[in-house]
Amino acid sequence: MAKIICVLYDDPVTGYPASYPRDGLPHIDGYPNGQTLPTPRAIDFEPGSLLGSVSGELGLRNYLESNGHELIVTSSKDGEDSVLDRELHDAEIVISQPFWPAYMTAERMAKAPKLKMIITAGIGSDHTDLQAAMDRGITVTEVTYCNSHSVAEHVLMMILSLVRNYIPSYNWVVKGGWNIADCVARSYDLEGMNVGTVAAGRIGSRVLRLLKPFGVKLHYLDRHRLPDAVEKELGLTHHTSLESLTRVCDVLTLNCPLHPETEHMIDEKALANFKRGAYLINTARGKLCDTNAIVKALESGQLAGYAGDVWFPQPAPKDHPWRTMPNHGMTPHISGSTLSAQTRYAAGTREILECYFENRPIRDEYLIVQGGHLAGVGAHSYSAGDATGGSEEAARFNK
Ligand code: NAD
């Protein structure tokens, strides 16, 4: 019998939904690279229901308990008196979502001698100290591709909302105004702009593909170059340095994982190389950027806008400066947790658990760390080390 701790975000303030705006979800055949959707033996939830919050339990309780395992589901994750810290001592598996991450630091792993696997129900395992997991032989997995397209759609929405000055214009309507000049004095067309992505993996390449019909010039930086045919089809310019990319881009979107190579890649020095009035969209990870450098760049006009849904730490303290900086379009971390994405990552989490308990191999594409090394997607997209430093600040949200 194994003990599994599942850390999920809280239910809606109005309570767990009794109904949804739509019935069911559209059917998707598979992912563009031929990867199949998650293939658990069964699911015990209604596709399209809220699975990522505490009462949704990722649809796992029936499966785990009927196989004799213990499931603890909680949103209490930060600070030494959290349920997560209290329950860790005999846990075998910890599951959490990047939206409400259980920061699995080396200290926490040291408190959990039976810990064998950490599952990210989503994509992005930077909330786990990957170096400590390697050192302790703990497996780290994520549900690769489950929400890559969800995020790409969000990136597109945020690019358009910044460039067209959507949020302030919407606010004039809500305030009862009709202030055309106030709205359009910051509004441009996207057509003709140079748009670049840092990383052209699953999300980044989808973003490039979605942007193509807008008549923009497309650029990317990635440590793995895309095939020639894709570069030609999309008319991409490949860059080998951040400086060369930022020098030409009117809009830059960040789509790489957070790991020691990418932590704070957008700092004051990097921002000085941006075109004046560039827009920066970051739905990848908050810590890719230096928090105060972003605020300063918005205040000086070096950036015309910043939007995204990722912060560090999460939840962001109430006084986090990104809540109040000028010309931002921030939301809480939501882009990868649509009801559509939740169905896929809940099913993927179940698939990973079934493989683990039945001693079947976990798909290579779900592996980040295994057997003391970066493995699978982890070896392709991450670098060794730890990016969880400072995560204890998340406890301040509740104070
Ligand atoms: P992916 O593994 O398909 O792509 C990652 C890409 O980043 C790879 O092509 C890799 O070569 C590139 N990369 C890694 N280090 C780099 C570096 N130093 N410089 C340039 N490129 C580098 O992953 P994905 O599905 O595209 O997701 C990317 C990231 O987006 C995740 O790791 C996660 O942090 C974030 N994400 C956010 C949300 C959300 O809800 N906001 C959801 C999913 C993923």
Automatic annotation (TrEMBL):
InterPro entries per UniProt: D-isomer_2_OHA_DH_cat_dom (IPR006139), D-isomer_DH_CS (IPR029753), D-isomer_DH_NAD-bd (IPR006140), FDH_NAD-dep (IPR033689), NAD(P)-bd_dom_sf (IPR036291)
Domain D-isomer specific 2-hydroxyacid dehydrogenase catalytic span(s) in chain numbering: 62-363
Transcription keyword on record: no
Alphabetic keyword roster: Cytoplasm, NAD, Oxidoreductase
Compartments where found: Cytoplasm
Catalytic activity: formate + NAD(+) = CO2 + NADH
CDD domains: FDH (cd05302)
UniProt GO molecular function: formate dehydrogenase (NAD+) activity; NAD binding; oxidoreductase activity, acting on the CH-OH group of donors, NAD or NADP as acceptor
Any single GO BP term: formate catabolic process
Residue span(s) of domain D-isomer specific 2-hydroxyacid dehydrogenase NAD-binding: 156-335
Residue sites binding NAD(+) per the record: 148, 202-203, 222, 257-261, 283, 309, 333-336, 381
EC number: 1.17.1.9
Site, Important for catalytic activity: residue positions: 285, 333
Residues annotated as binding substrate: 123, 147
NAD among keywords: yes
Family matches, as Pfam families: 2-Hacid_dh, 2-Hacid_dh_C
GO CC, alphabetical: cytoplasm
Predominant cellular place of this UniProt entry's protein: cytoplasm
Family stated for the protein in its record: Belongs to the D-isomer specific 2-hydroxyacid dehydrogenase family. FDH subfamily.
Subunit structure: Homodimer.
Biological role: Catalyzes the NAD(+)-dependent oxidation of formate to carbon dioxide. Formate oxidation is the final step in the methanol oxidation pathway in methylotrophic microorganisms. Has a role in the detoxification of exogenous formate in non-methylotrophic organisms.
Name of the molecule in the record: Formate dehydrogenase
Organism per entry: Pollutimonas bauzanensis
